Amino acid sequence: MLGPMRIDLHTHSTASDGTDAPADLPRLAKQAGLDAFALTDHDTAAGLVPAAAAAEQLGLIFVPGIELSIHPDPFATELPLDGQPAPGSLHLLGYHIKPLHPAIKSLIDQLHLARATRNPRIIEKLKELGVRIDYTDVVAQANAPLAEHQVAVIGRPHIAQVLVHRGYVKSIHEAFARYLGQGAAAYIPRELPTADKAIEAVHAAGGVAVLAHPVHLGLSPDDLEHHIARLADLGLDGLETLHPDHEPIDTKRLTTLANRFDLLTTGGSDYHGSRKAIGLGSVLAPEDALIRLREAAAQYA
Ligand code: AMP
Ligand code: FE
Ligand code: FE
Ligand code: ZN
Known about the structure:
Elements: E1 7-8, H1 25-31, E2 36-39, H2 48-58, E3 61-70, E4 90-95, H3 102-128, H4 135-143, H5 156-165, H6 172-180, H7 195-204, E5 208-211, H8 221-233, E6 238-242, H9 248-260, E7 264-267, H10 289-300
Parallel strand pairs: 1-2, 2-3, 5-6, 6-7
Antiparallel strand pairs: 3-4, 4-5
The protein binds adenosine monophosphate, fe (iii) ion (FE) (2 copies) and zinc ion (ZN).
């Protein structure tokens, strides 16, 4: 291998809100010049088996992953009550998880139930605002690229897509700004697992717990440090220091915090296919990330 290893540890497929099938991602990763990549779909492990099989055929290193939606307050120890808009969003990456482990499966089931409750309420809220779309269109849209027996994790990006198709908004961005984003007219919070439970489940399933795109927490530098200290206490293993939404100053701050709390560092493009204008491999992980993830996973195996 010439030059440094090219590793992208954050990608999405049609199993959640990406636009490429899990089995197609390895070929695209290879075309993007990657040596290794991780699939980290939102709240599902359904794409991991087909992606791993295709990666193996191409001789590409594959890291099975997931990106779990977590309650944004790491000090919360109970499921938040419905109807409380929670600021920020906390996404927890789990690497090297055993996808069928009961601990991760029950967390995934809980997350799917919360989505199944929330999504129709968003449609209702939109209707009150005079925006009439059918949830069946959202479901069909999300599942269209999948094989017959598969179902995608349905989220706000799919609702946004239908709003664009129906001409209510001009872009996904406008759909979030006007209707779906936090604080927008049809924003409905959902029940989310607490950080302690999620980290515990990732470890139980043999995985390594990494805080995704920490800037999305929307915290001041002091509060961010406070939250990361708390997550480290709960067993967090790493920080995603490299991400398209991170400015160089963010990466620098996060790397300092990772050193302070003895956390490994990761990075990736957060590729969503055509749904976001970010190319596969456009942000790479630190060189030592693969080895450090493997070492960390060995403790939980
Ligand atoms: P959900 O998990 O269903 O609540 O949807 C959240 C997902 O929507 C995030 O993980 C992003 O992929 C996407 N998203 C959130 N905010 C925006 C935005 N402003 N524009 C485009 N996509 C967004
Ligand atoms: Fe997403
Ligand atoms: Fe995320
Ligand atoms: Zn992501």
